[in-house]
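Hi all, long-time lurker, first post. I run a small reading group and we've been trying to get comfortable going from sequence to structure in the token notation. Rather than ask abstract questions, I figured I'd post a concrete chain and ask someone more experienced to write out its structure so we can walk through it together at our next meeting. Sequence below, copied exactly:
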Amino acid sequence: RPGAANRAFEILRAMLGTARQWGDIGEEVPDACANIVRNPRKPVARYLDGNELARLGEVLERHRNEHPWAVAAIRLLTLTGARLSEILHLKWDEVGDIDEDGVSARLGDSKTGPKTVWLGPEAASLLAELPRTEGSERVFPKELTPNRLYMFWTGIRDEAGLPGLRIHDCRHTWASQGVMNGVGLATVGRLLGHRRRETTAIYAHLDDGALRDAAAQAATVIAKAMGFRA
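-- Answer (accepted) --
Happy to help. Here is the structure in token form:
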């Protein structure tokens, strides 16, 4: 996979660079990574609009009693923008005190290292309603594996009329809705746990509407103060 190869290359380059700094590789040894070109990446960012979110929500509600854990996991993925592994491996001791304003979950080991996942009131309320499994520190039971959730998701998305939608697109949807509602790209990137700004750049075009509205709002305030009327 091109993306996996790129990540492996970055790890290798960092290892060789560290070895050179420590003196294990002499300065006379050519840089083995110097002429390697990373695989081109075509950004894929599918996100749901309001109508699609409504359809997905209706289908999830219909299956809530029969598949409570799977439905809760998908709802949390959509409400937090967290990665699938971060939700399924979430532990109760990582979750702070839940109140009406929300809660934070401090993950010791996410894909990009330690990370704080911020949950708003809706996600916090959903989390508070989940029963605790006796003898387990995990929020979700270990029986809810990624494969089982993928199988459930395939049926849910098709029932909602959303063929081809990936479960990872819940994360894209959260980020896209944030950007389109005025949250800055830098903030979205931090909340998603992105290490590289380029990773968040796939949402840049969605920022135009928020920028336009902000510019209009600022101009309206100034025009009103100056007594200017269009």
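A couple of things your group might point at:
The CA atoms of residues 4 and 39 lie 10 Å apart.
The chain has two domains: 1-42, 50-168.
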